[in-house]
Design brief:
It is a single chain. A 4-stranded mixed β-sheet has the order 1-2-4-3, sandwiched between helices. It is built from 3 helices and 4 strands; from the N terminus they run αβαβαββ. It has a domain of 66 residues: 2-Layer Sandwich (Translation Initiation Factor IF3). Helices cover 41% and strands 21% of the residues.
């Protein structure tokens, strides 16, 4: 599900006070990290992920890969932090139309 601009702004506002749930270190994006991100999305719907020790282009590619492999929408990128949203089976977050 792709979110529109209005929904993206709403989700960015909700994500702002959140702390990163998953931290990606020098080992990069491993299967275990992807599994943890997937579990966090199942549980929270809206999460932040911190990517450390990478160049800007590498961070962007890694965040895009996370979005593709987890089926989540990348709603924000601020420095080393990316925000992801994937609705649950019974969504707790009601998006504006």
């Amino acid at each position: 599900m792709a979110v529109n601009d209005k929904q993206r702004r709403y989700l960015k506002g909700l994500a702002h006070p959140l702390k990163p749930v998953v931290l990606i270190g020098n080992s990069g994006l491993t299967d275990n990290v992807l599994s943890e991100i997937d579990n966090a999305l199942n549980h929270h719907e809206l999460i932040k992920v911190r990517v450390s020790g990478q160049e800007r282009a590498d961070r962007k590619q890694m965040l895009d890969t996370i979005a593709t492999k987890t089926g989540a929408d990348l709603i924000m990128v601020i420095g080393h932090i990316g925000g992801f949203y994937r609705p649950a089976e019974k969504p707790a977050i009601q998006l504006p139309r």
